[in-house]
Design a protein that fits this description.
Layout: H1 4-32, H2 47-65, H3 69-88, H4 95-98, H5 101-116, H6 123-127, H7 130-136
Helix pairs in contact: 1-2, 1-5, 2-3, 3-5
């Protein structure tokens, strides 16, 4: 039988790290056109894309490191909700057709992290004693 008490924080940390790194990739596409430019986006970037990219860089690095995870994830979740309604929902109702599935998934994964916290392997765990973390919840 699997001991979920041991594995849950580790799997949560894995979800946090992988999601943050995938989110960072969206910022690198905006700023460095790496691994490719974002299709259909003009360069130089419009101001709203620069702001979105800056939010993505800062929040993804914080979330990946597990530093101030809850607030960074909450901000990233809000950005993805705004991105969905501003860019995808205007293209039609169905997320599979308006290409909004990634924005929805990022939004809800980050919302979950805002409530669940960083899990294992996080700077929050090193810099904030457990008693203070519980008080913050």
């Amino acid at each position: 039988m699997i001991n979920t008490a041991i594995w849950t924080p580790r799997v949560l940390a894995t979800l946090r790290i992988v999601t943050a790194l995938l989110f960072l990739e969206h910022a690198t596409m905006k700023f460095f056109q790496f691994p490719a430019a974002i299709p259909g986006v003009p360069y130089p970037l419009p101001a709203i894309m620069l702001i979105a990219g800056a939010i993505e860089v800062v929040t993804s690095v914080l979330i990946a490191a597990g530093y101030h995870t809850r607030i960074a994830a909450f901000i990233a979740s809000g950005e993805m909700a705004a991105a969905y309604f501003m860019a995808h929902a205007t293209q039609g109702f169905w997320p599979a057709l308006n290409m909004g599935e990634p924005a929805i998934l990022f939004c809800f994964i980050f919302l979950y992290l805002a409530f669940a916290g960083a899990g294992a392997w996080a700077l929050d765990n090193i810099l904030r004693p457990a008693s203070r973390q519980k008080a913050a919840v």
